[in-house]
């Protein structure tokens, strides 16, 4: 059964506590938290004070996605703000192995995200060190974008790499995920689905989470 990680970026910030409680009460597994700096991606989301506020009420793990340059500078802040999973972008980490080890040293699970143009083969030498790989199926920065179909083949390639290396890495996908794309991604080998607009813009977010969970 798929891990469902609703993206808090798409929720109603004016009612953040009630949105967090909605996810707590649902069949979702994680909270997906996007931290953006306006440098690596052309948008700014929220920072650690908001993340701490979410963590205060959340009863499920925080799945934190750092879309920022120099992520090493914020690993400890992630831990202090309640993160359980921290994912950094391959494209921002010149010393990726060191970054992964720094995340693990803080007692968190380490993930690496790949932009749509970044091939999975680049993770060959670190796949056994990773708890998670996040495949971006849209260009990062904004919610509500159209799904990039090539992500399905990318998930399949990544699954082959994980199996070939005997790794236990989870595959997560973020961007344009709904009941149709989610099904294809799971068939290709994905373990976790991030959904923002599809959940929070629906008439009944709890029921929408159930639809994804049942795929």
Q: Can you walk me through this structure?
A:
- Catalyzes the reversible epimerization of D-ribulose 5-phosphate to D-xylulose 5-phosphate.
- GO terms for molecular function: D-ribulose-phosphate 3-epimerase activity; metal ion binding.
- Its cofactor is a divalent metal cation; Mn(2+); Zn(2+); Co(2+).
- Pathway: Carbohydrate degradation.
- This protein is of the alpha/beta class and 215 residues long.
- It has a single domain, classed as TIM Barrel.
- It is built from 8 helices and 8 strands; from the N terminus they run E-H-E-H-E-H-E-H-E-E-H-E-H-E-H-H.
- Helix 3 links the parallel strand 3 and strand 4.
- It starts with a strand and ends with a helix.
List keywords for this structure.
215 residues, TIM Barrel, 8 strands, alpha/beta, eight-stranded parallel beta sheet
Q: Could you give a quick summary of the protein structure above?
A:
The chain has 215 residues and is α/β, with parallel strands linked by helices. It has helices spanning 16-25, 48-57, 75-80, 96-105, 150-165, 179-188, 197-200, 205-213; strands at residues 3-6, 31-36, 62-67, 83-89, 109-114, 132-136, 170-174, 192-195.
Strand and helix map with partners:
Elements: E1 3-6, H1 16-25, E2 31-36, H2 48-57, E3 62-67, H3 75-80, E4 83-89, H4 96-105, E5 109-114, E6 132-136, H5 150-165, E7 170-174, H6 179-188, E8 192-195, H7 197-200, H8 205-213
Parallel strand pairs: 1-8, 2-3, 3-4, 4-5, 5-6, 6-7, 7-8
Enzyme class: isomerase
Catalytic activity: D-ribulose 5-phosphate = D-xylulose 5-phosphate
GO biological process, one term: pentose-phosphate shunt
């Amino acid at each position: 059964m798929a891990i469902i990680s609703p993206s808090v970026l798409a929720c109603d910030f004016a009612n953040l506590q009630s949105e967090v409680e909605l996810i707590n009460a649902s069949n979702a597994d994680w909270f997906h938290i996007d931290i953006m700096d306006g440098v690596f991606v052309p948008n700014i989301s929220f920072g650690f004070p908001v993340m701490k506020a979410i963590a205060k009420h959340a009863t499920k793990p925080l799945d934190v996605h750092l879309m920022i340059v120099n992520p090493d500078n914020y690993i400890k802040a992630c831990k202090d703000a309640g993160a359980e999973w921290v994912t950094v972008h391959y494209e921002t980490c010149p010393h990726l192995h060191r970054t992964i080890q720094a995340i693990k040293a803080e007692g968190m699970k380490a993930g690496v995200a790949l932009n749509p143009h970044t091939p999975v083969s680049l993770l060959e030498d670190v796949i056994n060190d990773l708890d998670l790989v996040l495949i971006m199926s849209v260009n990062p920065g904004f919610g509500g974008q159209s799904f990039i179909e090539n992500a399905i083949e990318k998930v399949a390639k990544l699954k082959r790499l994980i199996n070939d290396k005997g790794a236990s890495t989870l595959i997560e996908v973020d961007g344009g995920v709904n009941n149709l794309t989610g099904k294809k991604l799971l068939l290709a080998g994905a373990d976790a689905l991030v959904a923002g607009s599809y959940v929070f813009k629906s008439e009944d977010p709890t029921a929408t989470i159930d639809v994804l969970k049942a795929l």
